[in-house]
Every structure is written in structure tokens, then in C-alpha cells.
Amino acid sequence: MTNSFPPPCIAPNALIPALREQGYAVLDAHSVAMLAKLPLADLNALLPSWNDLPPDQYLKDGGRYRRRRHASYQVQGDLVQAVPHRAHWQPLDYNALHGGMQRWFEPVAVGTSAHAAWNAVLQTLGTVASQLKGAQTWFVEAHQFRIDTTDGIGRPTPEGAHRDGVDIVAVFLVGRHGVKGGETRVFEADGPNGQRFTLTEPWSLLLLDDARVIHESTPIQPVGVDGHRDTLVVTLRAHGFQDDRPPKIAAEPD
């Protein structure tokens, strides 16, 4: 038997100190709802949208275990503004398996993206990022994931332990059904320390300072019919989205 370690949840008022001290923090669902100023029922109203995720067509390991949707936003203060649908791109330095290519995932459904709870979550994460890094516009990508066990094993992070090349990463556990595994592991990027635990409560949250820690989730295996693990992963980055096009350099005056 593999031990399952409970997540080290903290109170909302300890969130910023924990991120500053250790580079990560975990909140339970009640604390997430409190932080977002929402009843938990409003967050749960988003759950059915995870039943309508198309297959990820870009898995280089040949797997069929991942479904996802993707959307991008700019968040500044209380304003959450969707941007035109765009490819998800990461450099090979951060994702050796899937980096270096434009991945055009299907967009988050209009009804989901327009939902008040969805926007409250994004606005709340922008506030947290500004409290930690300074007030500014945040370039936000949101990914709905379903990892299933259709072929026996599903891999939440097929690229292994990694950073995402952003400022803040938020991983919400949205649901688990008929699976074992899916342990979360967080390690210091420049040190020996790490922690392992398993998120099981819908809408519990792992927040990461991406420059300071690396993270991964272990594979899942079925223990029942229709085994799957659903997550919402939101990344926040200052100064623009990651892009494979180099920034334009202004010509020097003659």
C-alpha cells in the first residue's frame, strides 16, 4: 500500500506569508471560496463543464489519457478581460516534451468563461499575484484538464517535474473518481527540500511561486469504472504571454 499524505492546508490570512517563506501554499475548498468571496455552490456550478472537454491532440507520448480546454485573459485589479483565442506555447527549457510548438487547444466554452464564479477565481488569483509580486497587469492562461484511465494509466504531468516559466501557478483539484495515485510533489528549485501530498477535496488549491519551486503529479491508475482526475490550472505571468515570436526591438535613432 502506498501512503497518502494529507495536504498541508493553511488559513487564507497565512497565504501570502507562506508563499514568501516557502514558495508554495495549499488551501482547502472552504478557504478558496472565502478568498474568492463566493459560496462553494457557485464554484460547484462549474463542474459539469469538465464533462465536455475534447481530447488533447498534442501528446507526444502517444497517450489518449488527457482532455483539455484553454483560454487566455488579462487581469488588472478587478478587471478580467478575455483576449482572442491563442495558442499555448512553452519553451523547451520549461517543457522538454511539449515545448517549442504552438498548441491550439479548443477554447474554454463561452458559458464557462462568462460564468461569474470563473471570473471571480481569475480576479482573486490576480489579486494574490499582485500582493506577492506588486500590482500590475497579469497575463493569465486557464487550462481545464481531465486525465482519465482509459488505457490503464493517466499522466497528469507527462513532462515530469517542471516549472512553467511564469510567475504564479494555481492548481485546483476539481474532482477525482475511481482512481488511485495523483500525488502532488513540490520541490525547491535550488535546494533539497520537498513535500508530497494528495489533493482530494474538490476546489482545494495549490499555489506555487514558479521561480522558486518545481512541481509534478504522479500517474493515476483505475480502481473503478470511468476513472479520472479533473483539475483547473491557471498561470499568471507579468510582462506578456509566453510566445515563440521574439519581441520587436525598436530601431535606434540615427
Query: Largest sheet at a glance?
Result: 7 strands, antiparallel
Mean pLDDT, to the nearest integer, reads: 91
Taken in chain order, the helices and strands follow as: HEHHEEHHEEEEEEEEE
Distance between the termini: 71 Å
The number of distinct helices, counting runs of at least 4 residues, comes to 5
From the alpha carbons, calculate the radius of gyration and give it in angstroms.
Answer: 18 Å
The stretches of 5 or more residues where confidence is low (pLDDT under 50) are 247-254
Helix residue percentage: 10-25%
In one word, what is the shape?
Answer: globular
- Portion of residues in beta strands equals 25-35%
As laid out across the biggest beta sheet, the strand order is 1-9-5-12-4-2-3
- Main structural class: alpha+beta
Number of strands: 12
Protein architecture, described:
This protein is an alpha+beta fold. The protein has helices at 15-22, 29-36, 40-44, 110-113, 116-133, and strands at 24-27, 66-76, 79-82, 138-148, 168-177, 179-181, 184-188, 194-197, 204-209, 213-217, 220-222, 228-237. A 7-stranded antiparallel beta sheet has the order 1-9-5-12-4-2-3. Strands 8-7-10 form a 3-stranded antiparallel beta sheet, with no helix packed on it. The protein has a two-stranded antiparallel ribbon with strand order 6-11. Strand 7 (184-188) and strand 8 (194-197) form a beta hairpin. The radius of gyration is 18 Å and the shape is globular. The N and C termini lie far apart (71 Å). The relative contact order is 0.21. Residues 247-254 have low confidence and may be disordered.
